[in-house]
Amino acid sequence: MTRKADPAAVPARAITKEDVARAAGVSHITVSRVINTPEKVSPATRERVESFISSMGYIPNMLAGGLASRRTRIVAAIVPTISHSIFAETVRGLSEQLSLQGYQLLLGQTNYSEDAETGLVEAFIGRRVDGLVLTGVQHSARTRQRLKAAGIPVVETWDLSPQPIDMLVGFDNHAAGQAMGDYLVRKGYRRMAFVGGDDPRGLARFAGMRDALLAQGAPEPVHLVVPMGSFLQAGRETICRLLALQPDIEATFFSNDVMAAGAALECARRGIAVPQRMALAGFANLEIATEVLPALTTVQISAHQIGLTAAEMLLTRFDGQTVPEPLCDLGYSILEREST
Amino acid sequence: MTRKADPAAVPARAITKEDVARAAGVSHITVSRVINTPEKVSPATRERVESFISSMGYIPNMLAGGLASRRTRIVAAIVPTISHSIFAETVRGLSEQLSLQGYQLLLGQTNYSEDAETGLVEAFIGRRVDGLVLTGVQHSARTRQRLKAAGIPVVETWDLSPQPIDMLVGFDNHAAGQAMGDYLVRKGYRRMAFVGGDDPRGLARFAGMRDALLAQGAPEPVHLVVPMGSFLQAGRETICRLLALQPDIEATFFSNDVMAAGAALECARRGIAVPQRMALAGFANLEIATEVLPALTTVQISAHQIGLTAAEMLLTRFDGQTVPEPLCDLGYSILEREST
DNA sequence: GTGAAAGCGCTAACAC
DNA sequence: GTGTTAGCGCTTTCAC
């Protein structure tokens, strides 16, 4: 078997529009039209070219296309982490909606580091992505400046901002924390704790809760900051620590459902009655919040919808249109369940 | 305020190497060298060029670079779904390792559809990704052929294959299922069930379990196929259905820990003693397996390591070197906990 | 309906 | 150490 006859042999160079054009007896621009604007080609040539495209296994080089057209059909998303499902739903929504229109998703993870975000933004601008989805509204000066200079559509998510870079889809973290604080006070809890990360959204939720408690005459809540990472375990360990240090705490509000679920599991293990001895509340209304025992009171937000809406905004802009509501507040609501 | 004077104005066109070169009084190729091979430029010019790069906010166009160099520094990964953490850990490992070397991750989700995978593979080849990471070893003929023709490094993951496309890092799903079957028989269980999706890996795990039970003289296990989606809930519902239909089942092996955890939660809710009345086993050793009550016996595999190893294999190949062990079996082990 | 020419911004190969 | 030349494969613009 000679090298040449081997059908599985890897060709030295990929097939180009030129190759297809030559085979079909047309110019490469006609091949381009068959792919991008088929209505501008006569049915006869179109069919011939199409048959050659498929028989030769031609796959257009989108790098070259993007360079020439200045459109890559790539959207980048930057999230703190893809694990533990908090942002995974948003990414899923984005990816679903985008792929419907032939766009691809470039993914970046910051591990909650602003420097990492800055680096990723530059890398993605270098890739000439058509649009960018950011988590949160707090970004380095350098990021904001680069984004402005690049002039590409940007959607900030998961928060609201007085000065958005461009578009935004999220909800008010401070108000959501406040609403939970109000709710817990109304339920009769007074001595409370908040457990969350030191990211801007977690801090805003705490501030909201604290404001609510103080306004209602309840004591300042204990604030426990946990490193981002293994969430269930963090919830379990935190509730232990809390009960040891401040046995009089009556309710704990966790910045996310996974941590709250970890706490609920630990309470079950140690025979701590929830909510009688300790009430538990979470954030995000993830699946685990309804499934754990007792089911968790939580703040319902629309993680998946954030992704869908962000994608729609971007697609509208790519289409040359103006987004009617570039600042979208998806809101939140308190979901009362058995844990409080 | 004139348009021109506005410092925030978006320039008509992005800054190029040419622009930087002109400002620094060198040729564009020198700018290119400063960025790609700084050691080949004299310290004096290097510093000057660097200062212009940073003051002008120049970001290289990697589209053009990729077209010219035939290297995009992009790796694509295709997973069934990013939600529910089963593959999220692999993606995280990949992304971590790749970003260390300046590579970016293009992500695709198939929702367990082979057609979707085929489409994504073509789209990614069109983007001229430097490498591709696939989930599983079962792919359409078209996918295999496209991949072969493209000649790019490919890593298949999460399974073993007699005929890998290129490289592979995974474990033997059949053997893992068998090991769990053997273990459960050894523990004295006889009437058992398996719950999983109809994806190749889930089916292989079931087949392994069945082979083990039959070989040991236990009855054929009941096989419940569940749609992929909300896993905790699926686990809960399945265990209800199972107890209603086959009350004599003594142990259930779930194709993933999240489903098994859902079942454990439901058993707790209904006062079903685990493992006395019903033993539960999961797969993957996710965080939830250790945190749920009772902690779940599971098959430990290395989801994160799969991503790391895949990235290392690709990087080695990008570096022009040969991967010493292109077929990597990461193995598995039975982790015995309280649920069996 | 189809094609020719120009150029997107960069790197590779080869000069000097 | 630095520059010149020639593409990479495509789309855009303008002819025909």
Characterise the protein shown here.
The structure is a homodimer of 340-residue chains. In chain A, strand 1 (74-79), helix 5 (88-100) and strand 2 form a beta-alpha-beta unit. Chain A is built from 13 helices and twelve strands. In chain A, helix 6 (114-126) runs parallel beside helix 7 and helix 10 (231-245) packs across helix 11. The first copy, chain A, is of the alpha/beta class and 340 residues long. The first copy, chain A, is elongated and about 85 Å long. The first copy, chain A, has a six-stranded parallel beta sheet with strand order 2-1-3-4-5-11, sandwiched between helices. In chain A, strands 7-6-8-9-10-12 form a six-stranded mixed beta sheet, sandwiched between helices. Chains A and B meet through helix 4, helix 5, strand 2, helix 6 and helix 7 of A and helix 4, helix 5, strand 2, helix 6 and helix 7 of B. The first copy, chain A, binds a DNA duplex (16 and 16 nucleotides) through helix 2 and helix 4.
